[in-house]
Automatic annotation (TrEMBL):
It comes from Pseudooceanicola sediminis. Its EC number is 6.3.4.18. Pathway: Purine metabolism; IMP biosynthesis via de novo pathway; 5-amino-1-(5-phospho-D-ribosyl)imidazole-4-carboxylate from 5-amino-1-(5-phospho-D-ribosyl)imidazole (N5-CAIR route): step 1/2. It is an enzyme of class 6 (ligase). It comes from the Bacteria. The keyword Membrane does not apply. This is N5-carboxyaminoimidazole ribonucleotide synthase. ATP binds at residues 100, 140, 145-151, 175-178, 183, 206, 259-260. Catalyzes the ATP-dependent conversion of 5-aminoimidazole ribonucleotide (AIR) and HCO(3)(-) to N5-carboxyaminoimidazole ribonucleotide (N5-CAIR).
Length: 350
């Protein structure tokens, strides 16, 4: 069987390994950090830095294809790997999504709606962008932000100085605040032959910038759900994408607004593990391994709830709850804000 190389050994890498092993494939995980959750289930783990070109070459030579569980892989590491083996999803998807400015330019270039935005280099550019916006905004670092980290809300112009100081000199982007009635996401897949399959959109609730729960089906009209899927397919095709992509959208009175994209399996797609015959992890492995995409039809209503930090105290009760499917990441240490696992509350469609 083939061996899949995975950059990153967090919970997403772990669940990719589990899906690959069900298909008789092996996974070789590359991860600089100690005690990666994926190490329990990977066939091979290389623990080395992304600066270590020798280790990267050995890793690339030992696998048939390379994929990743996070988008912030250093360009230099990708260059070394790509001389030896194919990276899926490809470099365009990575370079587009590593920088919020590049990503927004790409999305608006496709004719899709995003929040109004402006690149911010210093306090003066922030002040003038705020004046242009004439409404509340969110200042975000262009790179490396996740779970709402690297963001500052600006409700009134006098909050500009503090928000700018929060960015600590990092290049930033100001976004206009979107008044949304709901947040949804589409988990979409594309194979090397260009075939596309999307999971049913899920409705997401965030707390403190972190995803709290995802529910399928959404309460949205069918036309909007179709719109969301068509938007995701347009993004996949424009990137000549291979693998699973997460697209986060705001539902507004003016239609759907794209928040951001993630070139990987996505937290808001975890419901598929218990709601579909083929889940997002297997779908991603199938795409990068060149298999046909699987049947992602939904066969249950599901609410996925993240287990964050102290939520783990509820484990005994959850383990005894009918219809609750637990997925734990094997992380030894609980910390506030740390994703420890998730639970899918499942109601089969009759
Ligand atoms: P993720 O962990 O999903 O990668 P992130 O750190 O990249 O998160 P965003 O998705 O940009 O952050 O923002 C986190 C949340 O903040 C969004 O899901 C949404 O609830 C809110 N938010 C972000 N941008 C806007 C906006 N322009 N208008 C209104 N709300 C916003
Ligand atoms: Mg993000
Ligand atoms: Mg997000």
């Amino acid at each position: 069987g083939a061996t899949i190389g995975i950059l990153g050994g967090g919970q997403l890498g772990r669940m990719l390994c589990v899906a690959a092993s069900r298909l008789g494939l092996r996974c070789h995980v590359f991860e600089p950090g100690a005690n990666p959750p994926a190490a329990d289930v990977a066939h091979t783990v290389t623990r080395a830095s992304y600066e270590d070109a020798e280790a990267l070459r050995a890793f690339a030579a030992a696998v048939d294809v390379v994929t990743y569980e996070f988008e912030n892989i250093p360009t230099s590491a990708l260059d070394v790997i790509e001389e030896i083996v194919t990276i899926r999803p490809g470099r365009t998807a990575l370079s587009t999504s590593q920088d919020r400015l590049t990503e927004k330019d790409f999305l608006t270039g496709l004719g899709l709606k995003t929040a109004p935005y402006a690149a911010i280099s210093d306090l003066a550019s922030l002040r003038s962008a705020l004046a242009d916006l004439a409404s509340p905004g969110i200042l975000k670092t262009r790179r490396f932000g996740y779970d709402g980290k690297g963001q500052a809300r600006i409700l009134t112009p006098d909050q500009a100085d503090a928000a700018h100081a929060d960015m600590a000199g990092a290049p930033a982007l100001l976004e206009g605040f979107i008044e949304f009635s709901a947040e949804i996401s589409v988990i979409a897949a594309r194979g090397p032959d260009g075939s596309v399959a999307c999971f049913d959109p899920g409705e997401n609730v965030h707390e403190d910038g972190i995803l709290r729960r995802t529910t399928v089906p959404t309460s949205l009209p069918a036309a909007l759900r179709t719109d969301a899927v068509l938007i995701a397919a347009r993004i996949l095709n424009a990137l000549d994408y291979v693998g699973v992509l997460g697209v986060e959208l705001f539902v507004t009175t003016g239609g759907l607004v794209v928040n951001e994209i993630a070139p990987r399996v996505h937290n808001s797609g975890h419901w598929t593990q218990n709601g579909c015959t083929i889940d997002q992890f297997e779908q991603h492995i199938r795409a990068v391994a060149g298999w046909p995409l699987g049947d992602g039809q939904r066969h249950a209503d599901v609410t996925m709830e993240n287990l964050i930090g102290d939520d783990m105290a509820r484990l005994p009760a959850l383990a005894a709850t009918p219809g609750a499917a637990l997925h734990l990441y094997g992380k030894a240490e609980t910390r506030p804000g740390r994703k420890m696992g998730h639970v899918n509350h499942v109601t089969p469609l009759s």
